[in-house]
Amino acid sequence: MGTYIKPFNEIHIDDLPKVGGKNASLGEMFNELTKEGVRVPNGFATTSDAFWDYLDKNHLRKPLEDILANLDISTYRNLSEIGKKARELILSGTFSDTFSQKIVEAYQNLDKKHPATVAVRSSATAEDLPGASFAGQHDTFLNIKGEEALLKAVKKCFASLYTDRAIKYRNDKGFKHSNVALSVGVQQMVRADEGCSGVGFTIEPESGFENVILLSGVWGLGENIVQGNVNPDEFYVFKPTLKTGHFPILQKKKGDKRLTMIYNTERSGEPTVNIQTPVAKQNLFVLSDEEIGQLAHWTLAIENHYQKPMDIEWAKDGLSGELFIIQARPETVHQGKDKNTYVQYRLIEKGTKLVSGNAVGSKIRVGKVTQLKSPKEAKNLSSEHVIVTDTITPDWDPLLKQVGGIITNKGGRTSHAAIVARELGVPAIVGCGNATDRLQDGQMVTLSCAQGKTGHVYDGALQFEENKVNLSNIHKPKTEVKLILADPESAFQLSFYPNDGVGLLRMEFIITHSVKIHPMALVNFESIKNKEVKKEIDKLTEGYPNRTDYFIDQLAQGIATIAAAFYPKEVIVRLSDFKTNEYANLIGGKDFEPEEENPMLGFRGASRYYNERYKAGFALECAAIKRVRDIMGLTNLKVMMPFCRTPLEGKKVLLMMEENGLGRGENGLEIYTMVEIPSNVIMAEEFAQIFDGFSIGSNDLTQLTLGIDRDSEIMGNLFDENEAAAKKMISMAISSAKKTETKIGLCGQAPSDFPEFATFLVDQGINSISFNPDALLQGMENIGKAEKRMVDRKSTFLA
Asked: What is the Cα 678 distance to its own chain's centre?
């Protein structure tokens, strides 16, 4: 007889063979990380010796082997029957008096005065090894109180070693059933039923971006996140600025949190119950900024201790207000993944969007909708089927490997459905809200997770392409190669591309998709006549003390996410460059924008910023940028002024920026201007005196040089960046920049579309070229060839 019980203060990570990964990790943290402030509730674990002795005492090993020998491992058609028999066999046994006594003694030691309320968790001895997370494979029992209830829960945990999903998981992973034991962790319950709880990853779970911590949380017990019953709050924390003491929260996204799981005080039936969350509470974040920071520091300490990305669970005691870490395991999806090989998926056909939700993975799949209410309804599933259901629990796991995609109404990107889909490499869109209503059984759909963190389901079978890229084979040219970006959701994934930063961050996309409201409608809310518009603004800005704070916060989050993704490389954000007809389309915008015959040449760019019509709105843009740079510490962010017609206008805007806390040179701030008007080229040396760099906007510069509207159906075919006059303008701009030692780049499609255009820019000596993501690799190839030709010409000349 070996040791049956080990208290947490005697458990370390090398006890994994005895108590499983989950319990070994808890003991390790309890003993090693408490000194760093990490709080772990006390507890104890039963050992693998106890499990083996239980099987031997009750003569269960051989009968278990006989039952499992009848499993059909080709179709798993009898999995449910085999699993049920195995569990019933284990539950039929009895604990020895010694084992029962040891459990009771350890339980009594947790609280000498009162019977403790505990969580009883299963921990397989092969659990949480790299490549085998066992997440959700075995059972957990919460709110267990009293010796009799505890002993029952321990036996149920033993039996859960043979849940249907655990049996299939071990087969898939190549684990021999008879080699895996079950340890049971008994841990003091944190009163999260009165508080909140959640999970966290020390790595961005979709892209594998390592500088971000993702925390998610719900009111009450955390099982609602795991089961995907609710859409949780999400918080993205940037590690480098967390370490430097700056405000590190990049994004805060509010989930609906419609249900709250609490303890069942009736002591009859299930130990926990779900109740409706009051609407007022749904509209609150579960954690304060200070608590987010504290949890982030703890998860970072855990990651540093284990020297690998980790997946953690946390809980907040609603009575004491204290936070706790209640579990930690290695993150398994991105461990050992080849980060040099990337498969790029891209839709090449437009379609009708049906539903949207949290994207899991980055793939695109076409398939037939299969509506299921439970896994028992599933028949003859294949990769041609896309499961559509309300939510997915661990019972679904054996099915998920068979299908092409998963779509759910409920669940966040840290729900069980998301975790398992990620591990299996099955694309999923979770938390759509209305997928079961909007998608019809048998309907052909296209599931796209290739457009950032938001996934979309389109009607019909749309055409798409897969492009496998080996990033290790790509050599960056001498000319700096940067990205043109607008969508924060794609930033983490795109950061893995070979690049020298972001040459153009288009603020307009963030304003349109995240902010949605015209800044002057927030400044002058009371003057808005339309009641429906006011109602819409009130709904979006709920929870903000001042409506203008909403604009600053939402814009700052979007900009900060992109700046963090490419940190410490430079990211150049362009101040808003909507035209009046585009500004008018924002919520409340029509009340604050003039109608113009030719918006392209009208009230746009620098001229807006010091004009009374927009001056207060511009101050909000400046406040958002200042927040990102000075408060969040992302000083790699630089600013670019668009459509600046004269040096005098540039000086006016620079003065305004300084008045709003963005003085050129302060905290290392560099301010660029776009070269997109002939006056920018003609007066380039004067512009160089007041700006730190230039970026050629080849589209506008070509239009205004040739006098052609490229969107005109009649004139558009004459638009050509290779036209001699347009190239002459670019050549003059580069020449002036070199003369004044001013950095100069170009943003546009031409260098990727036309190799000769890339050659022209390289020959002129441009410092950098920025590309849209889908054109980056081709653009790099064109630049590389141009540079090689230049070297060859020099060699020939010298010879």
From this structure: 42
